[in-house]
């Protein structure tokens, strides 16, 4: 009988060990991390993860850049001459004219939908974007701004990329920490209990929230359009050669990305500059008719895009824990311009809206007429894409397997990391 009991106990012991071996250790560790994170942020972020029955893929998005991603910050700048808070902007947007430079969504809105965020990312300048409203992310972008601090000053008041990041650091970060200062993961050992409560909260904030957010960058086009190709107005006639100017931009942008990394950013989505030489305002300014693009302008932004992609490849030594998704807006839009019928596009050269002479052909005339079918147009005004084009850029950046659209991984894979 004793021998039978011994054999039975041995069998149970072996079975228990086998069961443990069958549990993948990385999965078990991931489960432990998820449990820790849920407690670490006090459950606040976890409660907002359900959106119409679907789990959102990131905690939030923090957006920096120019008018291609601005969703209303310039509305709050009294001295800004770059605003889209009037019709026909927003004619196809549920909120109407909101400050987005489009008939509907901008590319960040469309990307947020694909990521299943529970709502629109609010603009930083709106006083209501505080407290819980900031948990799904904040948009700091400012139309007319650039990588260089003085880019866009001719258009009135803008918020430079440097100031946008400073706003994130000085205002939004402390606000988020205050919202997510729930009890940290339970300490299980004496050494764990010696760690200060503040350190636990800091680790929890970065590991369980900030590292799971996307930091979206869409800037650089104005540095060429309003700066390099407009040197006299900026008092820089006889400026540096194009390669030197571009290297300077990339260096400054790299510094800004490293600053965000130091503040806790880990997942970056960077958009290339669109084919600016094909935009209605550039073509009209240079008196070009027909479907031809202005190649010197396109060549300049293509050089920047190439250097930006190299920046993504070479970022690891300076930002070892960072991961990137480079979205090539240039190629995505250029494909639509070169093969319009394939994409259901009819008009590739003209803006959908009537242009305002006071904005040098960039912005729509207030209350002016617009085209009937916005889905057939690439550009809504003299510079910015329509809702349909923004949606296509977002879809390609989010899910395309082609490195010509998203590199080295797409946004969906980045969100899963």
From TrEMBL:
- Record keyword Transcription regulation present: no
Arranged from A to Z, the UniProt key words for this protein are: Hydrolase, Lipid degradation, Lipid metabolism, Secreted, Signal
First and last residue of the signal peptide: 1-30
Gene3D superfamilies, alphabetized:
SGNH hydrolase
Q: Do the record's keywords include Hydrolase?
A: yes
Q: Name one GO biological process term.
A: lipid catabolic process
Domain of life, per lineage: Eukaryota
Q: Which CDD domains match?
A: SGNH_plant_lipase_like
**Where does this polypeptide localize?**
Secreted
* InterPro entries reported in the protein's UniProt record: GDSL, GDSL_esterase/lipase, SGNH_hydro_sf, SGNH_plant_lipase-like
Q: Name one GO molecular function term.
A: hydrolase activity, acting on ester bonds
Gene Ontology cellular component terms for the protein in this record: extracellular region
Q: State the family it belongs to.
A: Belongs to the 'GDSL' lipolytic enzyme family.
From the Swiss-Prot or TrEMBL record, give the protein name: GDSL esterase/lipase
């Amino acid at each position: 009988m004793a021998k039978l009991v011994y054999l039975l106990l041995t069998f149970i012991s072996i079975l228990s060990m086998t069961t443990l071996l069958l549990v993948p250790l990385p999965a078990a560790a991931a489960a432990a991390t998820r449990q820790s994170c849920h407690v670490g942020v006090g459950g606040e972020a976890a409660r907002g993860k359900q959106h119409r029955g679907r789990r959102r893929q990131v905690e939030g998005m923090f957006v920096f850049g120019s008018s291609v991603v601005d969703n209303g910050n310039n509305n709050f700048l009294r001295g800004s001459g770059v605003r889209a808070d009037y019709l026909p902007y927003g004619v196809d947007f549920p909120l109407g004219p909101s400050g987005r430079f489009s008939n509907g969504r901008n590319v960040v809105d469309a990307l947020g939908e694909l990521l299943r965020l529970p709502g629109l990312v609010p603009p930083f300048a709106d006083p209501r974007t505080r407290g819980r409203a900031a948990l799904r992310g904040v948009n700091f972008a400012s139309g007319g701004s650039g990588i260089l601090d003085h880019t866009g000053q001719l258009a009135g008041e803008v918020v430079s990329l440097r100031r946008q990041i400073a706003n994130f650091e000085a205002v939004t970060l402390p606000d988020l920490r205050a919202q997510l200062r729930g009890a940290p993961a339970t300490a299980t050992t004496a050494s764990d209990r010696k760690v200060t409560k503040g350190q636990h909260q800091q680790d929890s904030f970065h590991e369980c929230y900030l590292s799971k957010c996307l930091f979206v960058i869409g800037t650089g086009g104005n540095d060429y359009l309003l700066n390099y190709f407009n040197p006299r107005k900026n008092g820089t006639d006889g400026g540096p050669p194009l390669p030197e100017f571009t290297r300077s931009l990339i260096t400054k942008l790299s510094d800004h990305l490293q600053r965000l990394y130091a503040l806790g950013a880990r997942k970056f989505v960077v958009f290339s500059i669109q084919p600016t030489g094909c935009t209605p305002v550039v073509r009209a300014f240079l008196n070009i008719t027909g479907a031809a693009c202005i190649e010197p302008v396109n060549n300049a932004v293509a050089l920047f895009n190439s250097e930006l992609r190299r920046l993504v490849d070479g970022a690891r030594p300076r930002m070892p824990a960072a991961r990137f998704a480079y979205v090539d807006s240039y190629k995505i839009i250029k494909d639509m311009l070169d093969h319009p019928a394939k994409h259901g596009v009819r008009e590739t050269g003209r803006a959908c809206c009537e242009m305002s002479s006071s904005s040098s052909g960039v912005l729509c005339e207030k209350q002016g007429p617009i085209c009937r079918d916005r889905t057939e147009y690439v550009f809504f005004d003299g510079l910015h894409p329509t809702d349909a084009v923004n949606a296509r850029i977002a879809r390609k950046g989010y899910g395309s397997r082609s490195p010509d659209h998203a590199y080295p991984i797409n946004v969906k894979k980045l969100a899963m990391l």
